[in-house]
Amino acid sequence: MMTGPAVRSDTTIGDLHWWDLAEIADNDARIFGPTAWTVSYYWAVMAQSGTAMFQARTASAGDSSAAVGGQRPSDSVGQRPSDSVGELAGWIVMSASGSEADVMTIATTEAARGQGIGRSLLSAGIDWARSRGAHVVHLEVDERNESALALYRSFGFEEWGRRSDYYPGADAILMQHRLPPE
């Protein structure tokens, strides 16, 4: 059984929408610098079939739309869906084809780190991949990103290769996780 920090009770995981892409890309640039995805790239990935994008949001201070247990009330006509309300805490982009899936990108904002949000996002991504018929999930990670490596290993991901100098000054560790039958 996987263990780790419990996710905050005011956190919701939901679909990432087109109106969230500029905010996601801005945060991506702060986190990943020169290797960040651009808003145009996010748009292109969103348009591809076989992809899913999820975001995590926490209730903002003074956000009256957040309810107990992280549930959001339904929207009024003309407003953004409720899973775009609150402060962005992280996101994951997945792709799947046949029996294989990929974690294309995953990140948590600096303010949200250490709160179980990355774990919740990865779990949501793996659940989505399984629902699409995937039996194995792949990802690549900067060899210097110890916290991400620990998270992936806790899910059962194992290293199967490397890409030299894939990231500025670092190798990418290629990992895979064979999903146990349900």
Describe this structure in words.
With 182 residues, the protein is α+β, with helices and mostly antiparallel strands. It is 25% helix and 32% strand. It has helices at residues 21-32, 39-47, 117-131, 146-155, and strands at residues 11-15, 51-58, 87-97, 100-108, 136-142, 158-167, 170-178. A seven-stranded mixed sheet has the order 1-2-3-4-5-7-6, with helices on both faces. The protein starts with 10 loop residues before the first strand and ends with a strand.
Which shape, going by the Cα principal axes? globular
In round numbers, the mean pLDDT is 85
Q: What is the SS-derived class?
A: alpha+beta
Major sheet strand order: 1-2-3-4-5-7-6
Contiguous runs where pLDDT drops below 50 for at least 5 residues: 1-6, 61-82
Radius of gyration equals 16 Å
DSSP summary, beta strand count:
7
Strand portion = 25-35%
Count of discrete alpha- or pi-helical segments spanning 4 or more residues: 4
The description of the largest β-sheet is: 7 strands, mixed
Helix content: 25-40%
Tell me the distance between the termini.
Answer: 14 Å
**Helix and strand succession?**
EHHEEEHEHEE
